[in-house]
Each structure stands twice: as C-alpha cells, then as structure tokens.
Amino acid sequence: MEVSTAKDFDYQGMVILGASGNIGTRLIERVTESDYPAGEQHENAELADDKNPINHQHPTKIIAIADSTRFYVDLNGIPAELLRTSEDTKTNVKNVLADLGVDHYGDLSLIPKTIRMRIDQALNPIDIDLETEITPPPVQEEHIGYVDLTDSIKTKPVYDFVTQHSQSAVVAVSKKVLGYADKAQFDAYKNSGRVELLPTVGAGMDAIAHLANYPESRESLIQVDAMVSGTNLAICKGLESEAYKRGEIELHDLVYAAWKAGDTEPYADTDIGESESDTWVKARIMAMSAGLQALPADIKAGMPFVPKDIGDRFSKDTMADYIQAIADNVNQPMRDYVEANITKTHTLRHIARIKVDAEGNEEITVGLEQVPRDSEFATSEQNVIIIKDDTETVILKKPGAGRDVTCKSIEQAFRNLVPRGLSRQKVA
Questions:
Q1: Is 48 within 8 Å of 41 (Cβ atoms)?
Q2: What is the pLDDT of residue 40?
Q3: Cα 270 vs. chain centroid, distance in angstroms?
Q4: 2 CB burial (10 A radius; 0-12, 13-18, 19+)
Q5: Which domains does the chain show, CATH number per domain?
Q6: Going by C-beta distance under 8 Å and a sequence separation of 6 or more, which residues neighbour residue 19?
Q7: Cα–Cα distance between 39 and 300 in angstroms, integer?
Q8: Which of 116, 177, 121, 189 has its CA nearest to residue 150?
Q9: What is the DSSP letter of 133?
Q10: Does residue 68 sit in helix, strand or coil?
Q11: What whole-number distance in Å separates Cα of residue 245 and Cα of residue 237?
C-alpha cells in the first residue's frame, strides 16, 4: 500500500463569505493547515510539510473570499502564502481583499457570477485553434461550495443563484437568510439538496437533522425547549455571580465584556435583543425544519435582556452608545427582575420554546425564564435542546459553539454537499 501524493487529489473549491470574521479566519487556518498540497505553504511553521497532511478524502482549496465590501477569486486556489503570510490571519485576509479584490457594491451574486464566468473562459478561450485541446478549469461548478458566515440577509442572492442557476452548494452558518425566509422559501432551499442547514443551530448537535425527520415521521412533535446561545448563557451566569450580587458589575458590564471578547455578533443586540434575536431566528429554523409554519407574527417575546426600543436605536457602529443606553435604562430594571427571580430554588436562563398541541396549533416563545435549579437548563454548562414527541424525549447537549467546534461542523457539512477527491491511500 502506498500513500497518495498531493497531485493525486481533485479538490473542492471553497468560497468563504465573511472571510475576515472570527470563524472565517479560523476556517482559513484549518483548511490551509490540513488540505493544501506541499509546495504552497509559507515558511509559517504551522504549515510545515509534517504538520500539513492531506488527511481526508475531500481536500479543499479556498478559491474565493469576501467581506462586506470586496471579493477576490482565484480558481487555482488562493495560495497559503497570501492567506497566512503572517500570524494575523484577519489582517492577511483584509490585505488580500484590499490589494487584489474588487467591489461587489452589496450585490453578492457577483461572486458566483464571476466564478461561472472564469470557468466558462477556461473552457472556451476566445483565441484558440479549433484543434487545440482545451484544458479543463481547475475546479468546476459542481465541486464548489459557498460558506455563508456573514450574519446578513444580503447573502440571499447567493442562495438563490446557487440553487436556481448553478450546480454548486451553500453551507448556511449564518442564520439570517433561512431564519427570515417564509416557509415556502425555506422548504425550497431545503428540498434543493444544495443548502446545508446543520451548522445553523447548535453546530454539531444534529438537532436540525433530528427535527427534519418529523414531516415524514409517524411520531408527532409535541415540544422543543432550547437553550441555544452560549452568549446568553454566559450573561445569565454573570447575573447569578457573586460579583453581580455585590453590585460590583451590572448588566451593561456583562454585555460589554462579551462583545469585547468577540463572543457576540458585531452588534451585540443580535444576540441579546428582544425582537428577531439570534435565538428567535434559531427557533424559526428549528420549527420550520420540523414542518411548522413558524410565522414571525406568532412568535411571542418573553422577558429580554434589552428591550426592542433600545435595540432598534443603535447598530454595530454605535456600540458605545448602545452600552451606555443599557447602563442608563436597563441596569436597574434587570437588577429588580433578577432579585425577584433568582432564588435558592430557581435561576434564570434564556430559552426558546416551541409547542404543538393535538390540533397542530403552534406556540413559540423566546426570552428569559425562571427555571428550577435542578433542571437540565440550570445544571448544564452547555447548550441544551430537548425534543419531545409522542414516543420519546431526546436531550441534546453541546458546548457553546466556539471557533473550532463551528469549523468542524462547517467542514463536515461542506464535505456532505461537495463530495470531491480521491481516498488518501490506494492499493499499489
């Protein structure tokens, strides 16, 4: 038996939308460290040959990256020496986009259209002798996957182009496009077979795969109770801490610390706000995956960390004012709420609940709740999803999806959608 060399492999082409973010930069590091062939690495010790095996059946090259303003495409694979030229991957990505990228002017469909144009140009050169053999492009449409890390509804044109006009696929990590879709559009994405939902809720928990069985199952879904925000769990832990009890910290301190550490979305209200929060979107995706309508107007908001009227006034560009507004308007009401609800027998958790009665009527709520201290939600240090039907109750747990946990889920989803490449070993 002999080990295959890099030249034996056909590559998947990965397009990363939101490449300069926390998850995007880690995904770039993981791909360049494990999938890129020998000879393309920079002197960076992490990319040395003995630490850089092509270690699975579907090696990947990053063929395009994008941020909120620019994108860059290289069908041959963006060299690791560009993406990893220094230890600061975020800066490297921004430099590549600034030096080599072009503006997409907010129309992200330009990315798949540009990739298709480049593939067509490789297949059909303008000035070519008819007897000259055409060299296939280094990657083809059916071997390309788009990874959406943007937390933006603006990527919807990419989903639509990919599913309706291409042979490529999308790994949805961002929850915005799916979470704001109506049921018909959600089902169209899901049934296309080319949009992977698994990383959207509880990356690595398989909750979406479990819920997706109900539309064709003999069992009837009764209830889903979900604590699916590591950020919100950390803030709840802060509210029950000794420092909070002593008045040494307030809610705005907890929010600021989470945001500063990069544990929230760029606008922290996306995680902790009252309306259309991260948990709200996840609740819709879970419900629609199970075949429910999950109409936005029917989702009830429980007690929020920060009321809607404050969240609506600010943005990621005015975070300092947002934090100050919490300090001025929310700290004291939250302290009153905490003192009334955190007791010897109960504490607070931020939970999404989906209930379906015998007639099929839906009830979805999202917000802070008082929960018993001996409950799964109070005792767990992890995200928890409890799914109950008329046959069994399933409890799923997973640590808050950090960078590597999320990337692992992305990579698995990507391989599922874009199966390409030879096995690492072959019989001599």
A1: yes
A2: 52
A3: 14
A4: exposed
A5: 2-204+405-426 (3.40.50.720), 207-400 (3.30.360.10)
A6: 25, 28, 65, 66, 67, 93, 97, 149
A7: 56
A8: 177
A9: P
A10: coil
A11: 12
Residue 415 DSSP symbol:
H
Phi, psi (5° rounding) for residue 422? -95, 160
Q: Do 47 and 31 contact (CB within 8 A), yes or no? A: no
Please tell me the distance from the alpha carbon of residue 81 to that of residue 381, in angstroms, as a whole number. Answer: 39
Rounded Cα gap, residues 93 and 85, in angstroms: 10
* Token representation of residue 304: 């929020």
Contact 12, 414 (CB under 8 A): yes
Rounded Cα gap, residues 372 and 369, in angstroms: 10
**DSSP tally for the chain: helices H, then strands E:** 18, 15
Question: In what helix (H) or strand (E) does residue 33 lie, and over which residues does it extend?
Answer: helix 22-34
d(CA 131, CA 126): 14
Strand partners of residue 31? none
Provide the token pair at 390. Answer: 């008329």
Per-residue pLDDT reduced to its tens digit, 2-32: 333 445 567 899 999 999 998 999 999 999 8
- What is the number of residues in the chain? 428
Euclidean distance between CA atoms 358 and 283, whole angstroms: 20
Cα 278 to Cα 180, 285, 297, 316, 369, distances in angstroms:
11, 11, 16, 15, 17
Q: Please give the model's pTM, rounded to 2 decimal places.
A: 0.88
Kindly state the percentage of the chain with pLDDT values over 70.
88
Q: How far is CA 185 from CA 149, 207, 272, 309, 369, in A?
A: 20, 21, 27, 30, 32
